[in-house]
Amino acid sequence: MATVKPFKAIRPTRDKVGLFATRTYLSYDKIGLKEKLLNNPYTFLQIINPDFKKEEKATGSERFELIKKRFQEFLDKKIVNKEKKDAFYIYELNHEGNSFKGIIGTTSTKEYNEGIIKKHEKTIEKRENLFTKYLSITNFNADPVLLSYKSNKNIDNLINKFSNSRAEYEFTTANKASHKLWVITRPEEISKISNEFKKVDSLYIADGHHRTASSFRLSKENGPKFFMSFLINENHIKIYSFNRILMKLKDLNKENLILELSKKFVIKEIEKLNFQSKKENEILLYVKKDSYSLIPKKGSYNEDVLSKLSYSILSNNIINPLFNLDDNSEKIKYYNGKKNIEEIIEIIDKDKNSLAFILKPIKMKNIRKIADQNLALPPKSTYIEPKLRSGITILDLK
């Protein structure tokens, strides 16, 4: 049984939501970030970059205190306001031919600890610690965790029924994505949504493992027992791969590498980086301007759901033993599967001691199996959409 509750969101005024809501901070390069900060006084980026005009930037707790102060300024100026009633929020994103629609509410840190809210990816303790500290000082969270659930017609029908009216927000962003938000405050409608989720056995973290883990840590320190989530039918999410580039390798010898790989893989040279088989664990290699298909031989991996995935096979048979690297090495760069392959080829062609591995996306049924068995994929194994804008709804942690 999943507990999903409404909450009083802090959110921007209708006339400023298109200016306030933003892509995640890390998705901007330095030039793009500077341009946004100089030209848009209403963007959420102003809050999380409170000292951007200063040459010497604050760090750690000092920076988080400045963020807290800047957020309060936005509240005082009524650029953002706190909801007067508890609400669920139906959010719809349309982008690049894909449509995503789900419910923003809060979910239980206790149920995360108990395994009702399930994870499929490893987290990094350093990042957990940092984000827990951030939450404890700033007292707000502007980025909901993306949670999926098995296809449920009753929940889908409620979402469609309750969004069959004029949206509170309706705006388009510079990347040609359209956004809509409906505010659900009627007690009988809130009860219907909560009651339907009580019939859901498990929720699965699709994106936001570190945010969830940090919220749980905060709850153990007498923090809030619920965290903000965007809940969506698993059939409506998009899963992409995460490709790997290994850079600055010492004295990379292609012939020796192929010889080593042939011990555990069937290798076929190919003209282009296109997958040659229907096997989910096929891996493509690009090195020294040549492309190869790698299909693991029987006996090179175990038959459990985790071991036979290409990401595990790559880590266990190539990256770790042949290059003596772990998944968190600075020599490994991760490129999500939406990026053009030509970008990756260009990077490799410029560095004679680098190579790339291209992988297939993991199917949702396998992600569920991994989570159900309390297993964990290597970091950066899935790139899942939708990616919500920061600041459309904000959870007050006080």
Provide a compact summary of the structure.
The longest helix is centred in the first third of the chain and has 17 residues, at about 60-75. Helix 4 (about 60-75) crosses helix 6 (about 125-140) and helix 7 (about 155-160) runs antiparallel to helix 8.
- Class from helix and strand fractions: alpha+beta
Gross morphology: globular
Number of helical segments?
13
What level of helicity do the residues show? 25-40%
SS elements, strand count: 21
The protein's oligomeric status is: single chain
Which segments are poorly predicted (pLDDT under 50) over 5 or more consecutive residues? none
How far apart lie the N and C ends? 27 Å
Which properties best describe this structure?
alpha+beta; 13 helices; globular; 6-stranded antiparallel sheet; 398 residues
Provide an overview of this structure.
With 398 residues, this protein is α+β, with helices and mostly antiparallel strands. It is 32% helix and 25% strand. It contains 13 helices and 21 strands. Strands 1, 4, 5, 6, 8, 9, 10, 11 and 12 form a nine-stranded mixed beta sheet that branches. A six-stranded antiparallel beta sheet has the order 15-17-16-19-14-18, with helices on both faces. Strands 2-3 form a two-stranded antiparallel ribbon. Helix 4 crosses helix 6 (125-138) and helix 6 packs across helix 9. The mean pLDDT is 94.
